[in-house]
Amino acid sequence: MDELGASIAQSRRTVALIKSAAVAERERVSRLFAEAAATLQGFQTQVLSFIEEGEAAMLGRSQGDLRRQEEQRSHLSRARHNLSQVPEADSVSFLQELLALRLALEEGCSPGPGPPRELSFTKSSQAVRAVRDVLTEACTSQWEQLRGLGSDEDGLQKLGSEANAESQDPDSTNHLESEAPRDYFLKFAYIVDLDSDTADKFLQLFGTKGVKRVLCPINYPESPTRFTHCEQVLGEGALDRGTYYWEVEIIEGWVSVGVMAEGFSPQEPYDRGRLGRNAHSCCLQWNGRSFSVWFHGLEAPLPHPFSPTVGVCLEYADRALAFYAVRDGKMSLLRRLKASRPRRGGAPASPIDPFQSRLDSQFAGLFTHRLKPAFFLESVDAHLQIGPLKKSCISVLKRR
C-alpha cells in the first residue's frame, strides 16, 4: 500500500504537469496565432491601401482628361451654334464666328491619352495569392510534422542524424537548394549556343543567343535534327556529367526553359513533342500569369512572382535540375526537380503529390541520356535571349 501510495502521488504530479504544460502551450500558440493574424492584417491593409492609392492616382489623370474633353466638346458645340445664328447678309459676323469655330475645332481635335497599358494595382492579387500558397504549404508541412512528433521519436532522431551526415558529405550538392550569391553559380557557368539545325521554321534566331517566334515560316535548310511540329530549339553540345549553369532572359510571351534528351525525335507530334510533355524532357514554363514546372505530361504550379531572368542549374551527378529567379545578384529557388529518397522506419507518409510521384518513379531515367538545353516558344510573340554570364566564363565542355 505504501508503494502504491507513492506511485499514485507520482501519477498525480504527472497529471498536474501535463495540464499546466497544456495551458502554457495553449497560451503560447494563441499568442503566436494572434501575431500571425496581425501580420496578415497589416499586409492586407498595405495591399488595400496600395490599390486605393493606385486607383486614385490613375483616376485623377483619367477624370482630368475626361473633363478637358467634355469642355472642348461643349466649346465646339457652342461655336457651331453661334455660327448657325448669324444672318446670311452679315459677312463680318459670319467670318468672326467661323474663325471662333475653327479655333474651337483645332482645340477639340487633340486626341486623349487613351487607356493605360497596365494597371499597376492589379498585380496585388498575384502577390496575395503567392502569400496564400506559401502559407498553405507551410501549414500542411508543419501539420504533418506535428502528427509525427509523438509517434516515432527514434525515427526523428535518425532523421536528424541522417540530415547531419548528408550536410557533411563533400560530394552532396544539396546546398544548391538554398539561396546563394550568383557568383557561386558562376563557377559552373556553361555557355549555351543555340543550334540553328534544330530550330523550328517559325523561330527566328538572332545569332546564337536570341530567338523569337514569328508568323511567317523561315526557309531553313533541311536537317534531320530540326523540329517540325513544335516551336522549339536546342542548345549545341550534350551534357553528361558534372554541374552546369546558364541563364535565360524572358523578353516577351509564353516561354519554356529546360533540358531534353539528345536522342529524342524532333518529328514527334505536338502533344508529345513539347518540352515537359514526355519522359525525355522537363522544363520551367512562364504562361503569362505564373510559373510552373512540367515533366512527363504533368504540371506543378509555382507560387513565385515573375522574374525576367531565370537561372538553370543541371546537377548531373545528383540527377537534379533546379530553376532560380535571378535578381540583383541573388538566387531564389523556384523549384528543384529530383526524385525523393525512400522513407525509412515507417515514417508517416505525406499526402500524395502526383507530380512528385512521377519524379520519384521516372525522373532518374532522364539522366541515363546525354541532355541538351532546350527552349519552347509557345505564344506567337514569344521572345527570349540567352543571358550573359561573365566575360571570363568558358564552356564547361571546352574546359575539359
| Structural domain count | 2
Question: What name is given to the CATH topology of the largest domain?
Answer: Jelly Rolls
Radius of gyration: 32 Å
Helix/strand/pairing category? alpha+beta
Provide the succession of SSEs. HHHHEHEEEEEHEEEEEEHEEH
Q: Please tally the β strands and state the result.
A: 14
Quick one: overall form?
flat
Low-confidence stretches: 150-175, 391-400
Strand order across the biggest sheet? 1-12-11-10-5-14-3-2
- Separate helix tally: 8
EC number: 2.3.2.27
Keywords: Coiled coil, Cytoplasm, Metal-binding, Nucleus, Phosphoprotein, Transferase, Ubl conjugation pathway, Zinc, Zinc-finger
GO molecular function: ubiquitin protein ligase activity; zinc ion binding
Biased composition (Basic and acidic residues): 64-74
Question: Can you walk me through this structure?
Answer:
- An eight-stranded antiparallel β-sheet has the order 1-12-11-10-5-14-3-2. Strands 4-13-6-7-8-9 form a six-stranded antiparallel β-sheet.
- It folds into two domains: 1-107, no CATH class; 182-341 and 353-398, Sandwich (Jelly Rolls), CATH 2.60.120.920.
- The radius of gyration is 32 Å and the shape is flat.
- It is of the alpha+beta class.
- The chain has helices at residues 2-84, 91-108, 124-149, 153-167, 182-185, 270-273, 354-366, 396-399; strands at 180-181, 203-206, 210-213, 232-234, 243-252, 255-261, 281-286, 291-295, 298-301, 309-315, 320-327, 330-337, 371-377, 383-386.
- Residues 150-175 and 391-400 have low confidence and may be disordered.
